[in-house]
Amino acid sequence: MKPAPFSYFRARSASEAVALLAAAGEDARFLAGGQSLVPMMNFRIARPAALVDLNGCADLSYVILEKNRIRIGAMTRQLVAENDPLVRGHCPLLAQALAHAGPATVRNRATVGGSLANGYPLAQLPCVAVCLDAEMVLEGPQGVRTVPASRFFVSAMVTDIRPGELLREAVFPASGPRARQAFRESGNHAGGAAQAVVCVSKDADLRIAAAGLQDLPVRIPADFKAGGSYNEALVAALLEDALRACR
Description:
Number of helices: 10
Strand order of the largest sheet: 4-5-10-6-7
Low-confidence stretches: none
Shape: globular
Structural class: alpha+beta
Strand content: 25-35%
CATH topology of the largest domain: Uridine Diphospho-n-acetylenolpyruvylglucosamine Reductase, domain 3
CATH class of the largest domain: Alpha Beta
């Protein structure tokens, strides 16, 4: 099928994109990588009256290490972020998750911000964001605001992005030198859609997040004692206890 008719605008900056969306009306949508939106338009599941293309916004594509956090622009391609030395060195959980976010041809086009803004409950990046207590920086007609991942994901494919707002960047904490992080997902076959996702990060505390239990990623309580000795069997037991509680 082909999409329903729509108007098209190409923005050159984040501020121009916000202004164009406001002018286009409430039925307008932002276009990032298009890996989810375009197929939905082709099947006419989504019928936006106008698209504001973000691919010309150079100010939305970057990876910056700032003190103890990594700022990633919303239009940064997933493959670029996955292979960025700052991400690999200071947020390895994110790099691991991105490697599972579809084939390379998809990750070469899909964006970090697009996956987060879409809020698909079994996507890899929302689970990482919840696990690491990431923050989403939003820009709209009323200015800029920051929302923690714990409040950003509301339900399946529903986020705290307000009408007229743009997801400008995602901010992840940089891991310490003694941090350990791991990502796992399960599906019917290699390369297929995930049915369950689990993220684990141990630094000053132990954090576990999972997707596939509810209609949004959730943090799983873990009984962690600072200075304790942790091995694979103990972490697996903690995770099993936590999952049993969720059931």
